[in-house]
Design brief:
12 helices; single chain; nine-stranded antiparallel β-sheet
Length: 639
């Protein structure tokens, strides 16, 4: 029984120790990060600091395993190995840190200095999701995008307090020791910053103060701690401009059809001009010029950075109409249209007359239909409307003969996935207030899905709560009557990573990454249970056999279990015992002499001298006699 138990226990231990050890996955991280560092490190590894790093999607993502990153320009690789994150070359530019994502690293980077033959620390080296702005306490700053007319500020991360990078902030002295006392989600720091920057395009003004965030996160530390607001941000293009290009209107124009020039030119005026004549593209250049066409000539070879088209429009100083020396910015002429029938698999909707203000009392409807059997997903890129306006999604659900209307403005809905492949988006502008708003931008695309999650039985609600399908890659949180929250995700195969029923008593929280662990633990528990049962069976059987043997074996009755020594040697026992050359006994009798002894009379002097006449101090050393132990010791042990 002991052998069986040990065997199964060893087997389970081998299984447990052979399982791969993965870090706890904290959730999705930034797909693009930027590396900063000191001047000396930049000189040693210039390729590490060019461009940005993106998650390497050429390698399959395994839950719990840290991702790899690759530089989009130098192709330098960042990877985790043996407790270190390595950049470019292993053990040359590294940091000892077990963070799951690069932007979470707080350790100090080490750089190999070949001249000195040792690693040198670079306290300025760090990864961040995007550009970083530090705003010292009781100060304010405005974050601006290069193209504020159609770019918007995306807040990646925001912290208030002080962190490891306080010497880079400009708010603390170089000799100060950096503390780690900051808030992210506490007191809604992140939400507050996002809300301040979400309603405007191109810029965002922020203030750092205890009043703004409801307290001082470093108030528990003795001495003065210089706090600040640390904002990681990047400017993203609203899906509008097709880019900036070098035009050659005399010899090889980008857009070869209608051209017009007016002193008060704006982007929306050029769009309206080309759209009215059913052209596909519209381009603005030299502040006052507009050109239309259905094809962009040699677009790939003539493309320029978007920052080259920064000449302000003649009719609106907040917009840009191309650049000097015949630089043209091109748009799709459908931007700013009021309604239409859309059958493409993906596209973008803009408020009427975008990027300018929409007129009052407008009523526009866009009918979107995906004919490939997919459903339609709507995502809000910009949503800034007056309280008098309404933006709704209407869907006819044939199975239930139900018309579902989902209101977008004035709610927290940022994404909608339909049940059918046909929806309508309706915008109604109120009588006033339009001049003070930015409008809206909605992206739509046809996507495969896993179906809808019904609010039945023990399911009390599903978030997102519009009742539509869950698209591939989308997550949904299910709230249960027993207080559970279950998060499911629609996978590429069109199935959820969990199957119904979702509300069980197994746990209070379930996530996708827990599934393999649950199965492994369940299998190991079953193996241990079976091995324990088998071991118990053999132990009980052996003990029962031993008891039966003890009750019937006459030889064992001779043993006095009160004494730790073997029983007195009787004739029936010693018949098989060899006494020749026995240590500690001189003149031992022969076998024939022993057989003639009568232990019951206790009068034979020779027998007595062997068994009872000797005192305790002089009795033979049976315990240390190898030959005796080999014969009687095993018998005594078994009994």
């Amino acid at each position: 029984g002991t052998i069986v138990t040990a065997t199964f226990g060893t087997l389970c231990l081998v299984i447990l120790t052979s399982l791969p050890t993965y870090a706890q996955d904290p959730g999705p991280g930034c797909s693009t990060v930027r590396l900063s560092g000191s001047t000396s490190t930049r000189q040693l590894y210039p390729g590490a600091f060019t461009g940005t790093y993106n998650m390497d999607m050429s390698v399959p993502m395994i839950p719990g395993r840290r991702p790899r990153y690759r530089n989009d320009e130098s192709r330098a690789l960042v990877f985790f190995k043996q407790d270190y994150w390595h950049i470019e070359i292993e053990n040359r530019f590294r940091v000892r840190d077990s963070s799951f994502y690069l932007e979470d690293i707080t350790g100090t980077f080490e750089v190999w200095n070949s001249d000195r033959g040792e690693f040198v620390e670079d306290s300025e080296a760090h990864f961040s999701c995007a550009d970083i702005t530090y705003i010292c306490k009781d100060d304010n700053k405005t974050i601006r995008c290069p193209r504020p007319d159609f770019q918007k500020v995306l807040i990646v991360r925001a912290t208030y307090g002080q962190d490891y990078a306080c010497k880079l902030s400009g708010c603390a002295e170089r000799e100060d020791n950096c503390s780690s006392c900051f808030w992210v989600s506490r007191n809604n720091v992140m939400d507050t910053v996002e809300n301040l920057c979400s309603g405007v395009v191109g810029h965002c003004t922020l203030e750092a103060s205890d009043e703004m965030f409801g307290g001082n996160p470093c108030g528990h530390i003795q001495g003065e701690v210089k706090t600040y607001l640390r904002v990681e941000h990047k400017c993203i293009n609203a899906p509008m401009s097709l880019g900036c290009y070098q035009d050659e209107p005399a010899n090889n124009p980008l857009l070869s059809d209608v051209a017009k020039s007016i002193s008060n030119m704006t982007i929306q005026k050029c769009l309206s001009l080309c759209r009215a004549q059913r052209y596909k593209y519209a381009g603005v250049a030299n502040r006052f010029a507009c050109r239309c066409g259905n094809q962009i000539q040699d677009s790939a070879s003539r493309r320029l950075p978007i920052t080259d088209c920064t000449a302000t429009c003649g009719g609106d100083q907040s917009q840009f109409c191309g650049g000097s020396s015949q630089k043209m910015e091109i748009f799709e002429a459908s931007i700013g249209a009021c309604g239409g029938d859309l059958k493409a698999t993906e596209g973008t909707l803009y408020s009427p007359d975008f990027p300018g203000p929409y007129r009052n009392n407008q009523n526009c409807t866009w009918n979107i239909q995906d004919g490939s059997g997919n459903v339609v997903r709507i995502t809000t890129e910009l949503l800034d409307l007056s309280t008098d306006d309404s933006l709704t999604i209407t869907e006819e659900r044939s199975r239930s003969s139900q018309t579902v209307v989902t209101v977008l403005n004035g709610t927290s809905v940022t994404e909608y996935t339909s049940v059918s492949g046909r929806i309508s988006v309706q915008f109604r502008a109120g009588p006033r207030g339009a001049q003070q708003t930015e409008g809206f931008i909605l992206r739509y695309e046809g996507v495969a899905h896993c179906g809808a999650i019904a609010v039945v039985d023990d399911v009390t609600s599903v978030s997102p709560g519009h009742g539509g399908n869950v698209a591939i890659g989308q997550q949904a949180t299910i709230s249960c009557r027993n207080g559970q929250n279950v998060t499911v995700e629609c996978q590429e195969n069109g199935q959820f990573n969990f199957i119904a029923p979702y509300c069980t008593d197994a746990s209070s929280e379930r996530t996708a990454g827990q599934v393999p662990v649950v199965w492994i633990v369940s299998i190991l528990a079953a193996v241990l249970l079976i091995s324990g049962g088998v071991a118990a069976f053999f132990i009980i059987r052996r003990r029962r056999a031993a008891k039966e043997s003890e009750a019937t074996d006459d030889d064992y009755e001779m043993i006095d279990t009160q004494d730790s020594h073997p029983p007195p040697m009787g004739p029936q026992v010693v018949a098989t015992y060899t006494t020749s050359g026995r240590p500690g006994i001189s003149g031992a009798p022969s076998d024939s002499e022993y057989q003639s002894l009568d232990p019951n009379t206790m009068c034979n002097s020779e027998y007595t001298s062997l068994t009872t006449s000797q005192g305790h101090d002089s009795e033979p050393d049976y315990e240390n006699d190898p030959e005796y132990q080999n014969t009687f010791g095993k018998l005594y042990e078994n009994v």
